[in-house]
Amino acid sequence: MPFLVEISVPELDGKAATLVERLVLPDGYVGWDKPIALADIGGVRTELICNMPVVIDEWNCSPGDQMASGKLLVTAQAEGDEIPYGKPYARFEAEQPRKER
After folding, report:
1. Of the ranges 24-33, 35-44, 45-54, 92-101, which one carries the lowest mean pLDDT score?
2. Do 70 and 14 meet the contact criterion of CB atoms below 8 Å apart?
3. Tell me, what DSSP letter sits at residue 10?
4. Overall average pLDDT of the 4-30 stretch
5. CA-based Rg of the chain, rounded to a whole angstrom?
6. What is d(CA 69, CA 59) in angstroms, rounded to the nearest whole number?
7. What are the pLDDT digits (tens) for 61-78?
């Protein structure tokens, strides 16, 4: 049975961040360590990587919105044995060249 998880903006170390693009629509599946969004952090394009497989329920930010550390970004469904308890649910990484996801 899936659990509701809230994916928040990871730590930004005081930098400004803007949501650029949502890569997964509601009801879309995201596999292990796959990007769910693109963000601009201090002028650097980054991917927001989900640290578990999920099905996206609802986005709480739109492209162009400013994001602060800890802000609720998306709600999703995840299987209990795949949730990284006690660890971040997402992380930022430098954007990788686009290829089929």
Report:
1. 92-101
2. no
3. P
4. 94
5. 13
6. 16
7. 999 999 999 999 999 999
